[in-house]
């Protein structure tokens, strides 16, 4: 199954292709070659230079992709593009050294990039000065072009790092919330059972000591131990039940936030005021499982959740190819719970091309 693209993946490729647009602008060099050909540059030289320029553009885009993925410096790639840029600079095609400097930007230090940029500008303009005389216009144009491309590359890399840090911060926040909930549950169990188990242990030891000298007293102690054990069991069950109980409104809000974070537009229309606590918990569990299936098993762009008079309908447009009439595995156990509560649960594609999860329970 094809992995679903995350928001971070989409941001990464948006940044990569926006930088490719900067690189593809180097195709202006083709127009420059055409003009030079019309002014007397041999056809074979103009054609060869055009091919080299196209290769240079593609390699420049490849270099930025490596930088975004966090790869090591592509030394061979930089060397190859440097060799390609040399004959283009001799024509000269002013875009060629600019692209080479742009490729070096993500992997070099500021001093190295600055020296490379200044050196390429002076080298091309020095060559032009020897061949046809000095041109301040060409010098200013290439200097501005180099600064613009280098600045755009640095800005895109910075934007990518900010987006990545924000995404990682959201994941860390979610993991922290889970860890805090586990710690809270552990503290509650310790507070709940610690004293009870200590009392049970002490009374059991007392009964053991009194067993030989006063069996009746030992028996009374064991009855106390039995009562303490039953009380502890009731408290544990009550605590676990409270953790199992889900707040339907909170789950709906959380599911909508999660789906929209995954670029799935979510519409919620729910009337939950008249629902009993058991029904609310059951529907919350179904909504959570349904949202999981939307993220894992579909390519949905929109999801609609409605709850009216104990009837939950959760539909999405993410049907991808033929789908069977059976619900996903995660809903199998929930269907049994719904039937036990006197309701029904179905999950199947519709004639309109969407996928509908429907649960009807007593309000």
UniProtKB/TrEMBL annotation:
Segments passing through the bilayer: 12-35, 41-64, 76-100, 112-130, 137-160
Pfam families: HisKA_3 (PF07730)
Keyword Kinase attached: yes
Keyword Kinase (UniProt): yes
GO CC, alphabetical: membrane
UniProt keyword annotations, A-Z: Kinase, Membrane, Transferase, Transmembrane, Transmembrane helix, Two-component regulatory system
Protein's recorded name: Signal transduction histidine kinase subgroup 3 dimerisation and phosphoacceptor domain-containing protein
Organism: Nonomuraea cavernae
